[in-house]
Write a structure and sequence with these properties.
Helices cover about 70% and strands about 0% of the residues. The chain has three helices and no strands. The longest helix is centred in the last third of the chain and has 17 residues.
């Protein structure tokens, strides 16, 4: 079940990556929902999205430990 949540989160983040505000809200939700090792994987995924959309960089603050 947890893996499905991770994949769902990635799908949602891809869909809202056009809007930094929405993206940040979804990142916050994901941090509350996912397991610690999934958050590490999510950080890698978000880094790749930030390469394509630099304005999403502001949301990385929610992933800091």
């Amino acid at each position: 079940m947890a893996r499905a949540m991770f994949e769902y989160t990635k799908t949602i983040l891809k869909k809202v990556s056009f809007d930094a505000t929405l993206f940040c809200k979804e990142v916050q939700k994901a941090v509350n929902r996912l397991l610690p090792y999934e958050i590490d994987e999510l950080r890698i995924f978000i880094d790749s999205l930030v390469q394509q959309n630099p304005e999403l960089n502001q949301c990385l603050i929610y992933l800091k430990a």
